[in-house]
Amino acid sequence: MKNTPPIVHVLLISSLVLTIARGVTLPFVTIYLIEHFLLSQQAVGFVMGIGLAIAIVASFFGGYLVDKLNKKILAAVTVSFFSISFILFPFGDHPVIVILLIALLNTAYNVWSINQKAFFAEWLPVDKRIRVFSANYTIINIGWAIGSALGVWVVALHPLFPFYLSALLAVAVLILLFARMYRYGHGPNSDTNTSFHLNFISTLSLLKSDKRLIYFTLGSTMGAVVFGQFTGYLSQYLITITNQNFAYQAIGVMMITNALLVIILQYSLSKFFKANNLMRWLIVGSLFFVLGLVGFILAGDTLVFWAIAMAIFTLGEIIVIPVEYLFIDFIAPAHLKGTYYGVQNLSQLGGAFNPIMAGFLLTYLFPSSLFIVLISTAFIGLFFFYLGYRLAHEQNLAAQIEEKEVLT
After folding, report:
1. Binning pLDDT at 50, 70 and 90, where does residue 402 land?
2. Mapping DSSP to helix (H, G, I), strand (E, B) and coil, where does residue 217 land?
3. Is the whole-model pTM more than 0.90?
4. For 346-374, what is each residue's pLDDT tens digit?
């Protein structure tokens, strides 16, 4: 990426290493909890879901802090807590402690991600922002591919080794941040004054009045139920219909398939995402999600079918995630980027809810009911995005008419 500020390169490298750290451990946490604590499917769903939900709600306030505090200091603080949570995880001897550690880990990473988006907005023009966001998402998937492959090898040596390796990788990022990031000042799009005029209560009032943001967040929440934490509900489903060994193999194959497609297609597709075609792309992406979910129902115990279904599902992910980011980026005021990204991050409550939902459905209904519910959820999310898109379009037209009247 030519003419990209060096601080953006630091953020992208950090993103890669942190994702490797997550990939080493997180895909196997569900199985670790089942084996270590002898929990039921439903209990594991509650442990994962509650921990994620706490983190998501906490990161909403984190988005507000991104607009208020020094972004460089906040980056170092979040990475520090990220590392500490991995160090403490093996010492969690009760499910409640595990819930708190999952909450700490995900809060730290969520605030890091919000802060990173705010950095992009501060240092990059709009046309380059989506390209860098897509590059970052590609890097994240490279990290997941490396991390998951490394995790399979490390966990075979000892079940606790992945946690310690993840912590060391986070420390490496912390060293990089201290060595490189603090030499840079403010970006060309920074707004260091306006955000201080609003306290948290005033900011909440402003957010509640923006119906576009509310609709987009509801749509993103439904989408997160479908594709957020998908390795978690797929692990639960696979253990239910097959066995532990096949579940490990299938998850590994699907994660590699997912990562490779994102790496190959994500960045090149991003140049086609524009303000005037976002809704069309969102419809296409949602349809790929639905087809992929149907594929999961039909895959059975054949690894090739699981890989094909994941490939189709991934096409939806490649399209929907950057488009959702653009929806929020286009409506967020410059001085409230972090806050708006923080609100959008609340949509991850859908990802926190899906292991709970999966545990319930797999316990009390037939296994494929999980995917039937997810297909319905994908269409509901698309409807909310349509409402937000229509409202944003109407407001843009009204603003253009008002501007013409002033000029005449």
Report:
1. very low
2. helix
3. no
4. 887 787 778 778 888 888 888 889 999 99
Grouping H, G, I as helix, E, B as strand and the rest as coil, residue 187 is coil
DSSP class of 243 = -
Half-sphere exposure at residue 318, Cβ-oriented, CA atoms within 13 angstroms: 25
Dihedral of the alpha carbons of 48, 50, 52, 56, in degrees to the nearest 10? 170
The predicted-structure confidence for 41-78, as pLDDT tens digits, reads as follows 678 778 877 888 888 888 888 888 887 888 888 899 99
Report the topology of domain 7-183+206-407: Growth Hormone; Chain: A; (1.20.1250)
> The tokens of 50 are what?
């509650």
From the list 102, 80, 100, the residue with the least C-alpha distance to 18 is 80
Q: What is the DSSP string of 83-112?
A: HHHHHHGGG--SHHHHHHHHHHHHHHHHHH
What secondary structure does DSSP assign to 301-341, as a single string? T-HHHHHHHHHHHHHHHHHHHHHHHHHHHHHS-GGGHHHHH
Instruction: Give the up-direction half-sphere exposure of residue 303: CA atoms within 13 A in the CB hemisphere.
Output: 13
The model's pLDDT over 293-337, given as tens digits with 9 standing for 90+, comes to 999 999 888 899 999 999 999 999 999 988 888 888 888 777 777
Q: What are the CA-CA distances from residue 63 to residues 92, 107, 181, 333, 346 (Å)?
A: 28, 11, 20, 14, 10
